[in-house]
Design goal:
The structure is a single chain. The model has no long low-confidence stretch (mean pLDDT 95). Helix 1 crosses helix 2 (35-46). The chain has a 6-stranded antiparallel sheet with strand order 3-8-4-5-6-7. Strands 1-2 form a two-stranded antiparallel ribbon. It contains 4 helices and 8 strands. It is of the alpha+beta class and 148 residues long. The chain has helices spanning 4-10, 35-46, 70-80, 135-138, and strands at 22-23, 32-33, 82-84, 94-99, 102-112, 115-122, 127-132, 141-146.
Length: 148
């Protein structure tokens, strides 16, 4: 059975990439979302909550640069979600990835084929995409988190 976070995130596939965007695609609009916006949208759709019971969507922020403050990002993720060892990731978990050697990109772990994949708003693809969590991406995992 597909994890609810993964199933919901798949509904965002094809939404165009837009920095600080929070709008899911529809039949009449391409929407626009970035990697944090995808997480916020999924959290809103599922009414996800942090370990303290707080609705995660209430912690959403949109005032950040293209190059986010890495230490702030890790601190916020650690406060809102449960940190887990990167080697123990499962579908529905969140990974923080290094891009250009800086931890700044977020993705949702999925189950694809016989292994793991990621769903993320990827600027180079200009859209939300899903693909294998291959060695190239796996090597870039800086941290992992679970929604409890």
């Amino acid at each position: 059975m597909t994890h609810p976070i993964v199933a919901t995130a798949r509904g965002w596939i094809g939404t165009r990439f837009h920095h600080q965007g929070r709008l899911k695609k529809t039949d009449s609009h391409k929407g626009g979302v970035d990697c944090l916006g995808l997480l916020a949208g999924v959290a809103a759709e599922l009414d996800l909550r942090g370990p303290d019971g707080m609705r995660l969507i209430t912690a959403d922020e949109t005032n950040y640069a293209h190059q986010p403050d890495t230490s702030y990002l890790v601190a916020r993720l650690s406060a809102l979600l449960t940190p887990i060892p990167p080697g123990g990731i499962l579908p529905g978990d969140i990974v923080l990835l290094r891009i250009d050697e800086s931890p700044q990109h977020l993705a949702i772990v999925s189950d694809i084929g016989e292994g793991l994949g990621i769903i993320h708003a990827y600027a180079l693809a200009r859209a939300v995409v899903e693909h294998q969590l291959d060695d190239w991406w796996q090597e870039r995992i800086e941290a992992a988190f679970r929604v409890q």
